[in-house]
Structures are given as structure tokens and as C-alpha cells.
Amino acid sequence: LAKTTQPISMDSYEGQEVNITCSHNNIATNDYITWYQQFPSQGPRFIIQGYKTKVTNEVASLFIPADRKSSTLSLPRVSLSDTAVYYCLPKYSGGYQKVTFGTGTKLQVIP
Amino acid sequence: DVKVTQSSRYLVKRTGEKVFLECVQDMDHENMFWYRQDPGLGLRLIYFSYDVKMKEKGDIPEGYSVSREKKERFSLILESASTNQTSMYLCASTGYNEKLFFGSGTQLSVL
């Protein structure tokens, strides 16, 4: 199982682009990379998932280099409501799986 | 709309009581998980199940057991609750190569 490393916390002003990088040095060939967002007193919710290169949806972009040993979640023009903990998670694409979260990155958006 | 439902949002129990936390999903997912979350410690995996009657220990299974008699239901059992089991408990489910869906959590207080 790939182990992840993320910054523990980040601060950003409203309106800025935020990039959170996660390293997953021993990611397996069949692992996808998923990112989740968690607000206080709620369960995490899915933001974006990718395998390689770049993926974009209405919320974020995900950049994955060719070696797949890291990934970067990009949040464009953050607002106060983006203050949350963000988790990066390599996820096995096959059968049953033990899904373990790292400690995540606490993003604080400042007005 | 996809749904993972946890039976209680808040629960108060006494030391030594047997506690059942129930989780039901309506997505026909094979995999289900129980996590606990404590301040500063992130999400820690207690148990998971990849099929009916199948279970695997997570990272912190001590003091807990689980039951999965039907595909849609995954129960977490505290045989004899202790104060150090006061925590937020989160249930999640996923199919193959899909995102995790979380319930809204149960805040358990053991007095």
C-alpha cells in the first residue's frame, strides 16, 4: 500500500489559487489517485480522481507527473468555504482493498 | 442519490456497555469500512469488509468487532465500551474503482 506525505497545513488568501502536493513514492501500477475534502463534523467527500497527466472537473484540477510518485491538487480562486482538510489517497483499482487515509492537509483560507 | 446512512448522529453510553453502530448503504457496494477520527490523528481504519460475512482488520481493531450479514449493512460493535473509545465514527462504502462514500458520522461519548 502506498504511503502518502502531505503538508500538515497551508494558509491562503481568498481569491488565490492553491496547490497541495502529495507524495506517494511506492504507488502501484493499478492505483488511482483520489483526493477528498473534509469539513468539521462531516465525513470526507470525493473531489477528484486521476491516473496520470491532468484531470479537471468543476471543482479542481489534478496534476500527476509521468513517474506518478506525486500529485498536485489545484483549487482555483479559493473562497472561505474551501477551508477544510484535504486528503490524498492512492486507491487500488482492483478487488478488495484496505483504504487508509494519511493525516491530510488543513487548508485555512483567510479573508 | 447515493446514500450511506449511520443510525445515530450522537450517542452517549456508559463504560462497560455493549454498543452497536449501524451503517447501511444503498449502492450495492462490495466494500465497506469503519473509521474513527480523533482531533490531530486523522482518520484511522478500524475494520473493513469486502463481501458479506468477510472482514479484515484495519489499523486499530483492538476493542472492536464487526458484522456483515447482508451486503448493505455493516455494523461496528464495541463489546465493552471504554472512555478511550469516545470518538467520531465514520462509515464508508465503495465499489470497484469507485470513490468512497461516507456517512455523516456518529459522535460517540463514553462516560
Describe the SSE topology:
The complex is a heterodimer of chains A (111) and B (111).
Chain A: E1 9-13, E2 18-23, E3 31-38, E4 45-50, E5 53-56, E6 61-64, E7 70-75, E8 84-92, E9 105-110
Parallel strand pairs in A: 1-9
Antiparallel strand pairs in A: 2-7, 3-4, 3-8, 5-6, 6-7, 8-9
Chain B: E1 4-6, E2 10-13, E3 19-25, E4 31-38, E5 42-51, E6 54-57, E7 65-70, E8 73-78, E9 87-94, E10 101-102, E11 106-110
Parallel strand pairs in B: 2-11
Antiparallel strand pairs in B: 1-3, 3-8, 4-5, 4-9, 5-6, 7-8, 9-10, 9-11
Describe, in plain words, how this protein is organized in 3D.
The complex is a heterodimer of chains A (111) and B (111). Chain A is an all-beta fold and 111 residues long. Chain A is 0% helix and 49% strand. Chain A has no helices and 9 strands. In chain A, the strands form 2 sheets. Chain A has a 5-stranded mixed sheet with strand order 1-9-8-3-4, with no helix packed on it. Chain A is globular, with a radius of gyration of 13 Å. The termini of chain A are far apart. The mean pLDDT of chain A is 89. Chain B is mainly β and 111 residues long. Helix content of chain B is 0%, strand content 57%. In chain B, the strands form 2 sheets. In chain B, strands 2, 4, 5, 6, 9, 10 and 11 form a 7-stranded mixed sheet that branches. Chains A and B meet through strand 3 and strand 4 of A and strand 4, strand 5, strand 9 and strand 10 of B.
